[in-house]
Specification:
It comes from Lasius niger (Black garden ant). This protein has 96 residues and is mainly alpha-helical. It is 59% helix and 0% strand.
C-alpha cells in the first residue's frame, strides 16, 4: 500500500476549524519575518503549528523555534530516515 504525503489546504482547514483565524496566521508570519534564522514557512505549516498548540500564539512560536532549531542542530534525526537504506541495516533486519 502506498501512502501519499498530502499537504493540508489552508482554506480547507479554515472551513473545518473556526478557531483558526487569519489574524493569528499573520501574527506568526510577522514574528517569523523578524527571525532571520527561520526559513520561509507555508500557511499550511502555520496551521499545523497553531493546531498542535490549541490555537495559542505564544506556544506556537515556541514550537516553531524548537522545531527549526532541532532540525538545524540534530541533522542526523531528520535525514537518512530509510531504515533499510544501508547494507548493514538490511543485513541486521534480515530474518532467516
Amino acid at each position: 500500500m502506498s501512502h501519499e504525503n498530502k499537504r493540508i489546504s489552508y482554506d480547507e482547514e479554515k472551513r473545518k476549524n473556526p478557531e483558526l483565524k487569519d489574524s493569528d496566521i499573520q501574527i506568526l508570519k510577522d514574528w517569523c519575518a523578524k527571525q532571520p534564522h527561520l526559513p520561509k514557512i507555508l500557511d499550511s505549516e502555520y496551521v499545523l503549528f497553531l493546531h498542535s498548540n490549541y490555537y495559542r500564539i505564544e506556544p506556537a512560536k515556541n514550537t516553531i523555534e524548537a522545531y527549526y532549531t532541532s532540525r538545524t542542530h540534530l541533522v542526523e534525526f531528520f535525514s537518512d530516515r530509510d531504515p533499510l537504506g544501508t547494507k548493514q541495516l538490511r543485513e541486521a533486519f534480515r530474518v532467516t
